[in-house]
Amino acid sequence: MGAADIIPGVSGGTIALITGIYEELIEAIRSINLRFIIYFFRGFADKSYVKKSRESLFEIRFPFLISLALGIGVAFLVLANILGWLLDQYTSYTYAFFFGLILSSAVFVYKTSDIVIDSKTVFSLIIGILSGLFIVGLEAVQAEHSFFIVFIAGIITFCAMILPGLSGAFILLILGQYDFMLNVLRRITHLDFSSVWFAIIYIIGGIIGLVTFSRMLSFLLKSHRMVTLSFIIGLMIGALRKPAEVIVASPENIGIDILVGCIGVVIVGVVGYYDLKKYREGVD
């Protein structure tokens, strides 16, 4: 997820779907209840709130969230320079690989979701496709790099990161903060902490956005599962516009692009095969 979230046009949420942890991810984020902080401070005046603070704190799914955060963090720190180099030197190949991942992931979600094809799911699919096409087609804005702007960017992009098909990095690019934040990350990897406060502010904004947005996603997946999954599939299909545009812009690389794209499809196929087999065994 961390590797995918660095690349504009690719969604970490898509990787969560491929690996079968998406709904667990949403529920784990939803388990974060910041009221334990309020209860903690109120505990100085009323000891009964100490117990409430402890209960709220331990409702959070720490093992899952810590493991995931460490994985994403390591990917960010290790791959920021590698992926930056790949995007500079092998742009179309990199996007072709993720094109294969995203396309096959959309098929995988459909295969494992038992989506009933009716007017609601078809309409939701179309809205998802149009939304993906529109968002990916937006132009980057010119914005200052203040703490407030970076904080707002964190809120928006972290929400995008957990939506399959919607790239947090691309949203960051649209907000005019992508190059700036990537440079902040690169400086940290070289032990230059002069801009570390921008990274901290960005993460704080992201956590606030995730905690809020995950509750809405959890509700939609429980109450309107088929319609929500249809929209997500549509969003993933629409988001293919970005890697497709990069691939088409380099026709001389089309042969290798197709090969690399097929590798992406095979990876999802191998990972998804076991999840699909497990799913069908559970249905039987």
Textual characterization of the structure:
The protein is mainly α. It has one domain (2-283). The protein is 79% helix and 0% strand. The protein contains 15 helices and no strands. The protein has helices at residues 2-6, 12-18, 22-30, 35-42, 48-58, 62-89, 91-113, 119-136, 147-161, 168-174, 178-189, 196-223, 225-239, 241-248, 254-283. Helix 12 packs across helix 13 (225-239). The longest helix is centred in the last third of the chain and has 30 residues, at 254-283. It is globular, with a radius of gyration of 20 Å. The two termini are 31 Å apart.
How are the elements arranged and paired?
Blueprint lengths: L1 H5 L5 H7 L3 H9 L4 H8 L5 H11 L3 H28 L1 H23 L5 H18 L10 H15 L6 H7 L3 H12 L6 H28 L1 H15 L1 H8 L5 H30 L1
Helix pairs in contact: 2-7, 3-12, 4-5, 6-7, 6-11, 7-13, 7-14, 7-15, 8-13, 9-10, 9-12, 12-13
Short overview:
This protein has 15 helices and no strands. The chain is mainly α and 284 residues long.
Basic shape: globular
Tally the structural domains.
Answer: 1
Helix proportion range: over 70%
| Helical run tally | 15
How would you name the oligomeric state of the polypeptide chains in this document? single chain
User: What is the tally of beta strands?
Assistant: 0
Structural class: mainly alpha
| Rg from alpha-carbon coordinates | 20 Å
Mean pLDDT: 80
Return the string of H and E elements. HHHHHHHHHHHHHHH
**Major β-sheet profile:** none
Low-confidence stretches: none
- Approximately how much beta-strand content do the residues carry? under 5%
Distance between the termini: 31 Å
